[in-house]
Every structure is written in structure tokens, then in C-alpha cells.
Amino acid sequence: MSFSVFNSMTRSVEPFVPLEPGVVRMYNCGPTVYNRPHVGNYRAFLFADTLRRWLEYLGLRVEQVMNITDVGHLTDDADEGEDKLEKQARREKLDPWQISRKVTEQFFADLAALGVRQAKAYPKASEHIPEMLEIIEGLLAKGHAYAVGGNVYFDVKSFPRYGRLSGNRVEELEAGARIAVREDKRNPEDFALWKSDPAHLMKWATRFGPDGFPGWHIECSAMSRKHLGERLDIHTGGEDNIFPHHECEIAQSESFSGKPFATYWMHSKFLQVDGGKMSKSLGNTYTLDDVAAKGFNARQLRFALIRGHYRAPLNFTWESMKDAASSLENLDDLVVRLRRVAKGQEGAGQPQAGLELVQAARKTFEDGMNDDLNVSRALPGLMALRAAALEGRLGSAAALDALEFVRRANEVLGVIQVDEELLPAAIEALIAARQAARKAKDFKESDRIRDELLAKGIVLEDTPKGVVWRRKA
């Protein structure tokens, strides 16, 4: 297999080799469902979807799991602060379970709109409390954790490899730097596996007390173990998950199982907005509804978020959305032109002409994707095909081959309009009326109908062999 990925653990590009031949077990950090995910969140989720699609393109079976965090994620990402769901519930004057259900439904609706393939499972943290407690009890028995005052903490000094993923050394971690300072901890860097708080609304009775709830990190260890086993091929997330979340996952999972947790760690970069940080105070945490209000659709947003390399900075602006929409329109046009050449309506005289161009385009695409999922390096292969079609360098057989390749490439990208679409009768009638107006030399009426069709998203092109149409992206 020629697919190589950048492994955050080793900080190097490595050939991808699954633990079990032909099968990939992949865990993706999903949303904390206190608020509808925004475009920044979707950069990470779409990266995971594109990765899964590419692995399937390579012929692998992907067992993908993405969690739903619906309890225990505190506002400072460590052991202090308020539960994000309970804080939002108080703001909206709702029960936190209502917030969880509402936002989870929005999340799944957004995934469908963005064309994200359904994962094997979307486990909820609140439904895996027994699995979390099993790991906690195991860590206590092995001396990796300790209980005090209803709280259970992981003893970081019991795991010498702590800090390998993030590069943080335990002796250099300062209390207060993303670490909660508590007198009941043995070490400031120790993190909570289970917390006790009578004021917490989402809680479970255990031997540690009647008012407990899980720490954020233990949730993913328990859910990934339940649905994928003790060893993962790939674990993904945003770069903000590296520390403390993923670092803590590794420590508790490997201390419990005695096995390596994940072979490859892959992290996407933050999405910037207008060159700066995304924040609620700036009013730039855009949702899919905000994108639609600006006149863009989910397909265009998907393309805007995946067309750059996942490890490269990406700046989201409304101008970049316009550019993405325009580029996507060109990809749609590629399919229209290839279909036209395949039908003999235009193109090179020899059917086999340009077959080598299709092979080169396929190689460019596959080389780019095999290079650590480099979509920006893969896309020129498709654009080169469009140029060849525009310049009449493809014959009908080459066009058929190219169409099949574009369909396969779109199984990875999920953005191109590849299926031949039948127009509604009303649109067909408008096209016929325009043709009649042109034949009668009523060019004013012809132009009016063209503009009406354009407003409906239909672009017409007059060719020597008649009028052809395509849908505007």
C-alpha cells in the first residue's frame, strides 16, 4: 500500500499499515453537544470523512466510530469549570438532556447535508458509564489511579510515557497551565477520571458516592474500547485535542490494557475566519444556517473545507466561499463536457485520443491523496482533464474512461454533480422556447429566457451541435 500519513505521535510521515490486513479501525473525536457545531468543527469532521473515503477507495473496510460527548466536558477542558451542557441549559432555561437531544439532532442533520458517510457507531458518553467505571476500577487496582473525597484521579507519574504525543514533559508542566490546581491531587498534572459534585445535574451513584460523573478523557477510552477494541489503527481530532485530551486518553488506555492504544494519530489544523481566531464574541462561529443565509449550500461548504491540506492553515472568508463555489462549478462542468465528448457531440476524432491524459490525471489524483491525504495536490488532476476536454484533446473512449475516473474520485470528494440529471418539464419548455426565439431571431426574448434560466441555476451553452445545459454550482 502506498498511502502515507503524518503521525502526530512520531512527528513524521509513515506508510499506513493496518493492524489487521484489509481492515481499519478508526476513532474520531466528535462534538460536545452543548451548541450546534460550526464550520471550524466541521473542518475536523470532514477531514475524518475524507480519510475514511480514501481508505475505502483503496479497498479497505473501515470501521469508523465518532463519539457524542453529552456529559463531563468542562469549560476549561481540564478538571475545573462548569459542564458545558449544564451551562448552556441554564442559559436556555432547559434541561441538559434536552440540550443534548436537540444539538445531536442538528449535528446529524448537518452531517447528512454535508454528505458525510454514516459511521459504524455514534456512541454517547452518557450511555457508556459502566464501561468507564470498568476502566477506572482497573486503573485503581493497578495503582495508576487513586480515589479521594468521591473523586478519582489518574496518577500521571505512574505512566512514564505521558507527554510523548504533545511534547509536554511532566516536570515542565506548571500548575494552572490547562491543569486544575486542587489540594486533593497528589500531583497538579493528575487528571480526573471521575468527579463528585452534588450540584451537577447529570450524575450517577457509584461506590465513590451518589453524585458522580465522568471526566472528559475517560469517555473516549471507554467508547473506543467498547466499539473498536483495545487497539486502534487511527485516532483523529482537531489540533486542540492533542493536549490534554488525547495525551490523557493514551495514558489511561495503555495503563489499563497494557497495549499500544493507537498506531496513527492524525490532527487537523484550526480553521481561521477572516485571518483570525473564531470566537462567539466576534460573531464568526458560523453554522450551516449562516452559510445558507449568505447564499451558499452545504456542497460548496464541504468543498471549501476539504480542498486544502488538513494540516495546512485554512482561512474561511465569504470570498473564499465564492472561490470554492466557482471551482466546484468547473468540476461540475468537467462532467458535462466529458459526457458530451463520450456521446460524440464534440472532441477529438479518434475515440482513443487522450487516454494517456486520463491515466496521467488519475495518477496525479491518487499520488496527491496517497501523500498524507493532500487534496490540494490531487485536484489538479481533475482540472487537467477539464482543460483537455475544453481543448478537444479527448476522444469518446477516453471521455468514457475519464467519466469513470471522475465518479471514483468523487467517491472520495463527495462534491461533484456526477449523475446525469433530468430537467423538470417546465425548464425543458423554457429551453425549447429560447431555441424557438433564437430561430426567429428574437434575441431580446432569447436573452430574457437565458437570464430566467440562469436565475433558476441553469447555465446554457450554444455549441455547433446544439444547446447544452449544466446546473450552476
Protein architecture, described:
The chain has 473 residues and is of the alpha/beta class. The chain has 3 domains: 4-268, Rossmann fold (3-Layer(aba) Sandwich), CATH 3.40.50; 298-413, no CATH class; 425-471. 44% of the residues lie in helices and 16% in strands. The chain has 14 helices and 15 strands. Helix 1 crosses helix 12, helix 4 crosses helix 6 and helix 10 runs antiparallel to helix 11. The two termini are 35 Å apart. The mean pLDDT is 92.
Can you summarize this structure?
This protein is of the alpha/beta class and 473 residues long. The protein contains 14 helices and 15 strands.
Distance between the termini: 35 Å
Please write the string of helix (H) and strand (E) elements: EEEHEHHHEEEEEHEHEEHHEHHHHHHEE
Overall 3D form: elongated
Helix content: 40-55%
Main sheet summary: 5 strands, antiparallel
Total domain modules? 3
Say which CATH homologous superfamily of the largest domain is assigned.
Answer: HUPs
The number of strands is 15
Runs with pLDDT <50, length 5+? none
Tally the helices.
14
Radius of gyration: 26 Å
Strand content: 15-25%
Which CATH architecture of the largest domain?
3-Layer(aba) Sandwich
- The first-level CATH class of the largest domain is given as Alpha Beta
SS content category: alpha/beta
Overall average pLDDT: 92
CATH topology of the largest domain: Rossmann fold
